[in-house]
């Protein structure tokens, strides 16, 4: 197994200055799925922990969700959208192959002075995008960066395939990454890794340059997510603990120094198993997979938003984020959560 690039964040201190999230209104319960698929509420809850998920409406796409989350993050950061210099959208369900979903997100969020690109790294995409943003701000390339994780996964999920249809949900989350204003928030370091030999375990086979769209690819339903659930499960339970351990070690901290663990919300059993491996007490692990299912690149910022709203994420808390997914990829980030931000309208 290839190892990861793991390092403390150097340069000027950087923090998350704003946070936002959004899920579509339509709720799909396990019973709704059991009415059309050979599955049951009991199976889904026992094997995944999921009780319900959200689904986009006809005509709604990933950028629609990301725009709402992005605007909320900008308001939360009290930053004029025109001061954002880069917008990164992490997604595995982009609006189109081209142009980037981030281009529309930037436009509709009012980020008129920003570059924009999409980042594809499976469900680790949000952590990867956060790392790119943090590195760019720490090194002085950019002042404020908007990072959006946005997914309309129901659009690329085969609703006739019970192995995947019960897992995925739609949603978006966003953060603004800025120079730390000294109120306590600081991103400490990252661990990013990849093992391309796991390509076939989780993939949308057709629609790219390897297998372009054709009547045959549509008939064979190859534009939908195909997953070897057991293979991904085995990989995930191992890699989450390893990646978390590496970033903690490189930043000079121990598991006991962490106040809140936010892992990619794929399956409650994966989260529980990683927590046991790391020796983390349940009260320090935040989950909302029960309400939203697996929202890929949106799952971690959705957790941060909900955890803060519930009083589980407070200024000064040390937080460990871990993502994993298609690639196979993984990524971890250690940070200290900041307090309310002073008004900021430009370069500091
Ligand atoms: O974001 C990262 C991407 N994804 C993941 O992290 C997913 C990782 N994998 C998983 O979460 C789990 O492997 C699943 C939840 C997908 C599946 O759980 P499992 O415990 O690995 O079940 P399984 O695939 O071994 O299937 C057990 C049984 C099979 O029946 P038989 O062969 O024992 O008769 C399946 O056909 O459950 C059956 N099954 C279902 N039954 C009812 C599979 N899906 C369903 C379903 N409802 N939805």
How would you characterize this protein structure?
By secondary structure, the protein is of the alpha/beta class. The chain folds into two domains: 3-182, Thiolase/Chalcone synthase (Peroxisomal Thiolase, Chain A, domain 1, 3-Layer(aba) Sandwich); 187-284 and 306-337, Thiolase/Chalcone synthase (Peroxisomal Thiolase, Chain A, domain 1, 3-Layer(aba) Sandwich). The protein contains eleven helices and 15 strands. It has helices spanning 30-34, 41-48, 62-77, 101-108, 125-138, 162-165, 215-219, 229-251, 268-278, 289-292, 299-309, and strands spanning 5-8, 14-22, 26-29, 52-55, 86-90, 115-119, 145-151, 171-179, 186-194, 202-203, 226-227, 260-263, 285-286, 318-325, 329-336. It has a six-stranded mixed β-sheet, with helices on both faces. The protein has a five-stranded mixed β-sheet with strand order 2-8-7-5-6, with helices on both faces. Strands 3-4 form a two-stranded antiparallel sheet. Strand 12, helix 9 and strand 13 (285-286) form a beta-alpha-beta unit. Helix 3 packs across helix 4. The longest helix has 23 residues, at 229-251. It is globular and about 55 Å long. The structure holds oxa(dethia)-CoA. Oxa(dethia)-CoA binds next to helix 2, helix 6 and helix 8. The site of oxa(dethia)-CoA has 21 residues, from helix 2, helix 6 and helix 8.
